[in-house]
Amino acid sequence: MIIRKLKRYLPARFIVLFVAALGCGASLTLLTGNSPVDAQHSPKSEVPYCVSSPTVPTEVRFDGITIDLRRYDRRERMDRELMAFTYMHSTTMLLVKRANRYFPLVEPLLKANGIPDDFKYLMVIESNLNPIAHSPAGAAGLWQFMPATGREYGLEVNDNVDERYHIEKATVAACAYFRKAYARYGDWMAVAAAYNAGQARISSQLDKQLASHAMDLWLNEETSRYMFRLLAVKEVMSNPPRYGFLLKRADLYPAIPYTEIQVSTPIDSLDEFARQRGISYAQLRDANPWLREHSLKNRSSKLYVLHIPTREGMYYDPRKTVAYDKRWVID
What we know:
The protein has helices at residues 2-7, 12-26, 28-32, 72-87, 89-112, 120-127, 147-152, 167-185, 188-197, 199-208, 221-238, 270-276, 281-287, 311-314, and strands spanning 59-62, 65-68, 258-263, 304-309. It is mainly alpha-helical. Strand 1 and strand 2 (65-68) form a beta hairpin.
């Protein structure tokens, strides 16, 4: 019965893997028993499951450009990142769930600003699609801007308002960075590397190492892995079932609908402001993570737009969730 159900969702080779895993489990009693086992005929595993290495593609596409992965160093670096995303189970599954909420917001902004759609995966590896992500170094938001870089690209960053956490504004700022870097390199993978290591470092290393491609540079491990993490997460999220992630539409996180309120005056108590609109302060902050305190000082009478989640959105029915990308789900 189980095998028949799996055939509805998975190709034959995954059924074989599943059966093999069952076989490993069945052999556990032999492995843990007191009787000696013939080493030539028994599996080596001492755990009741099997894992396999995902296949490394010979090439991948990024912004329509083919990247050759046949050379040993590129292949093994890609292999490492594919294995990481494949067996980092809960984190990778959460990425797909969150992508259903945030990709619809980000993709149109990338397109409007002339940035390849594949750069949404850079946002994935930067923050795990956590809009309130904050690194020990001080980077923040989905795009993990440092304070000075955020200000350089037009974001308000202070103790009261931090627009690095504003999804739309931070995305537009990231696009401005990408455009500037592309004007310098003319190559989107170099742009990605520069986002992690800085443009000065990538430029100096390209010159010093006489390299024509950023992927061929000898860099610190973080940046060296960064470009292949970008390619690997695209591969996994483009076909989650292939890598063992079987999600249904109801598992995905839908966008939370909200109403907008424009304010150009200070708000002494955001707690009271939220209460008057039928939500909690926590829900107000969740919808507007760029608010950083219990008040909005706004001494310059700047126009802000606050999102107020609707009751229907907060109590959404998972059965009605629509998959933004049908490749993510099995139903």
